[in-house]
Predict the structure.
Amino acid sequence: MSEASGGQAPRVIGVDAARGLALIGMFVAHTAPMAATADAQAIIAIADERPRLLFALTAGLALGFISGGIRPLPAARGFAGGPERRRLRRQIAIRAVILIALGLLITEYLRPLVFVILDVYGVAFLVLIPLLFLPRWVALGIGIAGLAVAPGLAVLLAREDWVVQARGTWLELPAAWFVSGAYPVIEWVPVMLIGVAIARFGATRPRVVGTTAAVGAVAGIAFLPIGVELLRLGTRQFTDPALVPEAVRTLALGESLQALGNVGIGAVVVAVLVALTALAGARTTRITTAVLSPVTAMGAMPLTIYTAQLIVLAGSKRVENGIETDDSWPLLLALVVGSMVFAWCWRRWIGRGPLEELLRIASGRRRDGRRGETPPTDPPSTDPPTADPPTDRHPMGTQP
């Protein structure tokens, strides 16, 4: 598999597979009932935080791929880096606005019992547009530094008077998007920047894959246990009114360390899947790709799969013991298996996901692709046959 360059981005199957795993993790977080034992609940709790950050990491990789990968679209004279970069930024902006609108409409009219991430992703894409072509080391440095600070900062800012007073006003939604919501943009943008930087270094280069795995493992081992313990300590401190200020600081530090650790784990997942599907021996690559193909197909159409999941969840609400819920093991199984079967069949016989294709047409990228695309470079044995052109590596536009 060749590296993406000059605006062309061959499919990186391992990244699609990682995105598919993130989707499955979200399904678990959204629909798994409370487990009977503490140990079983701890296993289910793994899906509470990591999938969304893995999702954000693969979103950054997708942005890096569609903007040129290791050879970013060249800058030229003129506004916003010349016509090529300006065209790409406009396409991303259009997709971002559509995602924001779609997320708000689903939240308002379907009212699923989960936090909808589509509008937050759209806002994050808009924020990333001016940062998209930063030098790779700068993007990586800002991403890591931002990730170390932003989660804790969001905890602190969420308690500020201006954020609290924004509730019930027109400022409530922007405040939720950036600092006080379940998925604050100030946390997601650094994660996406790390993904962009990995794409710039070469997401399928053996040295980059190895370094990503090693650094991610160290971050996960070093930061995640401490972050989890600090969050537990902060929660206990909150029971004592005299310790509330200290509890907030403890929780802020714990959130930042936990985010660093979880993104590290996400980086390991991406690196391992890329290694197994692109860098291992031919036999191993062929077997791994075949086994993962249903998950990979899901990850190649995340907007379609994620939106369909929200529709199913909205239609599965019921009242149990006076509480509205959609938790159900059969529902979880149906979502996972149904998504795999649908995505694999659709990509096998049709190609790009339906919502991904509509988003591509709306942003004008399909017209650009017809003028300047080249045939796909992925060998047929490593990906289900698809009509996807190689110049767009993210289904939602760059990912949900």
